[in-house]
Amino acid sequence: MLEIVIIVIAGLLLGMLAFALVGLTRVRSLRTRHRQRLATIDPRHSEPASLVGLASEGRLQTRGMGTLAVGDTHLLFAQLLPERDILVPRDAISSARATRHFLGKTTGADLLVVTWDVDGLADAAAFSVPDVAAWRDRLA
């Protein structure tokens, strides 16, 4: 009876170890891809941010955490999960402002709203960032 208990416990421990190793491998792979996506714009500044919304996607959309980065030629939001990018040429940015309202949602803190126009198609995105004023200055 004791042998069966030991075998079951050993099996459970091995299963948990395998699960942890697979998880660590996936996280490392996600982080590597995230860094590679950010490197495409050679960022001058980047920091964690949260996507509150993209105007062209309407009210029902996937929001989430990621990194907001600005380089010499582009602004990039690299979202972690799902993995997606919002890439905006800097010369297409028409405004960067602070607001507490976006797509019918109201927040208790200022949001950074970036508006741009590419080939006659306008869009906007709202981000929750630690220092909205600093981001407005970077994008001015």
Query: Biggest sheet, strands in spatial order?
Result: 4-3-2-1-7-6-5
Q: Please state the CA-atom Rg, rounded to the nearest Å.
A: 21 Å
| pLDDT averaged residue by residue | 93
Count of β-strands: 7
Distance between the termini: 73 Å
**Major sheet description:** 7 strands, antiparallel
Morphology call: elongated
- Residue share in helices? 25-40%
> Which structural class matches the secondary elements?
alpha+beta
How much of the residues is beta strand, in percent? 35-45%
Please, how many helices? Answer: 2
Element-by-element helix/strand order: HEEEEEEEH
- The low-confidence runs, each spanning 5 or more residues with pLDDT under 50, are none
SSE topology sketch:
Blueprint: H1 2-39, E1 45-54, E2 64-70, E3 74-79, E4 84-89, E5 93-102, E6 105-118, E7 121-128, H2 132-139
Antiparallel strand pairs: 1-2, 1-7, 2-3, 3-4, 5-6, 6-7
Walk me through what this model shows.
Helices cover 33% and strands 44% of the residues. The model has no long low-confidence stretch (mean pLDDT 93). With 140 residues, the protein is an alpha+beta fold. The termini are far apart. The longest helix has 38 residues, at 2-39. The chain has helices spanning 2-39, 132-139; strands at 45-54, 64-70, 74-79, 84-89, 93-102, 105-118, 121-128.
